[in-house]
Amino acid sequence: MNSYIQKCEFIVSSILEAQTPEDYISSAERLSDFYAQLVTSNEYLTQDNEVAVKGGVALSGLHAAACVDDFFRTVAFIKGVHKAINKLSDDFPTKTINILYAGTGPYATLILPLLPLFDTNRLSVIFLDINAASIESVRNLTDILGLNGYSLDYAIADATTYVIPEHFPVDLVVSETMHYGLTLEPQVAIVKNLSPQMPTHAILIPQEIHIDFGYSFFAYEPFVSKFADIPKGYNKLQPYEYRKIIDRLFTINKELFVNQVNNDSKIVSSFYPLPAEFSNHPDVCIYTGVTILDDIKLTTAESLITNPYCIVSLLNLAGNSHIQLVYDFSDMPKWLYNLQEQ
Ligand SMILES: C[S@@+](CC[C@H](N)C(=O)[O-])C[C@H]1O[C@@H](n2cnc3c(N)ncnc32)[C@H](O)[C@@H]1O
Questions:
Q1: Which atom of ligand 1 is nearest to the CA of 106?
Q2: SUPFAM superfamilies given for it (predicted)?
Q3: How many whole angstroms from 55 Cα to the centroid of ligand 1?
Q4: In what order do the strands lie in the sheet with 334-341?
Q5: What is the CATH number of the domain that holds 108?
Q6: What confidence tier does 258 reach under pLDDT thresholds 50, 70, 90?
């Protein structure tokens, strides 16, 4: 057996067995080192290929590769994808499981390490990224690891408009193309395009992204700004004690866009009363929670993708009685608000 594969199997087993924060960190660090050893070319790890699509920015190869170091995210997603493949294998014991991985980056981090755990005839994968260099890197990695016995395909395409081939009825779609507060990156536009193309039995990873809104003191909220902060976010930082969650604004899941009749790229909330007294919670904040699959979740500040996001300070809204929040992903995804005067 190829020694890289043996190493890969060892690392992925340690990820799947990880229970404690220390296990999460050490197993993801091993995976990061493994990739750093295998992918060294500047051609794949360039900063120069960030692409703006309708719906957000596709990160450069270098930044997409660095996502492996968002340790809790990486471990939680790999656990979730593994669980999804096992579930589909149990439900369809004789069928090949067709997987679309939309937004692989240069490492295809969330699927590639799992391949050696499954028989070659069980999985068929389309690796898709908008960056040609990232797809070239993934192709190179599958060669190095000797994974060519699997049915693997490669697509350089925009996942916000991609049409899943008819010969590939998809069972699992994996896409982690998100930034906290669902700003900047095109996760929602990608889900909007791909989910109506998924059969009812198919699984979307992440299964749900919850967006809650509340009033808080943003400066006192847990927030991880670099990878080294993440264990702190997970372990030590507590929610700000006067945080007031007001409502769940929406949940992004496979069902959200299936029956959508209009082509709207906005999600608009109701009007909510603004608090009269807010010295302990002067900011309008958005909280992102990710359910990767069932019980595998990431909550506030466990990962860079679940940091809280501040929309506006209440100090700037004097003279108004109500606020309405608008998530607009028609272009660069962003938060807007409308006000009702007193
Ligand atoms: C946040 S990185 C994640 C990389 C890797 N999947 C991981 O989880 O570590 C997102 C990747 O998705 C790609 N991407 C973003 N938007 C895309 C789009 N509209 N179409 C295709 N790829 C896209 C980016 O180029 C980048 O490689």
A1: 27
A2: S-adenosyl-L-methionine-dependent methyltransferases
A3: 13
A4: 266-273, 320-328, 334-341
A5: 3.40.50.150
A6: confident
